[in-house]
Amino acid sequence: MKVFINTMIYDYEKFIKNGYIKFDKEIVEVGDMKNYKENPEDEVVDLSDHLVLPGFINSHMHIYSTFARGMIVPYNPKSFKDILLQLWWKLDSKLDEEAVYYSGLVSAVELIKNGVTTVIDHHASGMVIKGSLNILKKAVVDEGKMRGIFCFETSDRFDVDEAIEENVEFMKERSEKHAGMFGLHASLSLSDDTLRRVSESFEDGPIHIHVAESYEDEQDSMEKSGLRVVERLEKFGLLTKNSILSHCVHINENEASILKNKEVYIAVNVTSNMNNAVGLPKTKLFKEYGIPIVIGNDGLGYNITRDWMNLYFSQKLLYENPTYFSIDDLYEGIKNGYKLASELLEIKLGKIEKGYKADFTVVKYVPPTPIDESNISGHVFFGIFDKPDIKHVLVDGEYLMKNGQIHLNEKEIYNEASKVAKKVWERLR
Questions:
Q1: Are strands 15-23 and 27-32 parallel, antiparallel or unpaired?
Q2: pLDDT in tens, 121-155
Q3: Closest CA to 242 of 270, 204, 279, 277
Q4: How high is the pLDDT of residue 425?
Q5: Domain locations in the chain?
Q6: CATH 3.40.50.2300 is held by the domain 56-345
Q7: Whole-prediction pTM value?
């Protein structure tokens, strides 16, 4: 049995200033140090001046974006569709098995170093569709030892039959470490015929799709079907329980009312939205209609705490109200991510309580001002999320990073990944 002692503990609800956590794959016992009883057989780690948090979650990621770093292509977009055509669709169309695998390995390294233990990914690779999700699983879950939820972006850009089959096959199996969703790119890249085929291809399970990221998605949907994006998805019966509708920047009140009782989640990705100049998610609208949010970064880097902070700041700016969107509102989005992942993986994530998985992000933190249960939120948001000094990362009680050293061979992976990236870039010419 492993035990953390003399540590601060916080799971966005409960705070222990000087406590202990006894765990194996799951948490066995949590409490104040005054109640701790030593056992000579335990593996004890003194975490004085540290804070233990639940392992971070990224609820909307694009691992395939890995090799965009440093990539030079002609780029002068005038619209969001141009961004897709000139950058992302150009890149994903040239990804083969090797590129998918090393994208996954590099992402595992980067995510772990940033404290992320669970990732929900939205994948695309034009040169390999069948088997691509198992390649990602091998890299991220089997070798990276993280938890991963994967899907393939079905799109009329690709072989639709292969994309449907890949999603359906991958969704058939799950473990405590991995699961599948049915991936769709976005309404603007999907015909009615494709949506109908998708609707007929699986009886149950959640979808993962971009929705109204830019207003062009809504315009395209109206032109194709006379319906807005959410209305179109409802028509084909695709608003299934635990689905992720990413972005939803431009949905209107009618679309929000449709989503109200569908038990779906909106994944907000404000850093990406700002970078693409498409607008910001209207969280007041989502809240008014009781639609829960989860938080992702849309593949723009790996530091999810940056996106958590940007969501907090951007909503204040959007509504011109410094008291709107509190830290508690932010925490609600983070906790929703754990809730969703817990349901998809059929385990308990996101709390530091007995029976929950021992997935931890441990940060070095010496508070420069008094800290207790009344102000822990301010310390975490302004003192840790801004630049987390991550020392240990664990999944199932196993160290993925210990004392700042990751369990993967980072240098070897990066050297090989650089060679693979060069091949991908050459195919872009």
A1: antiparallel
A2: 999 999 999 999 999 999 999 999 999 999 999 99
A3: 204
A4: 97
A5: 2-54+355-406, 56-345
A6: no
A7: 0.97
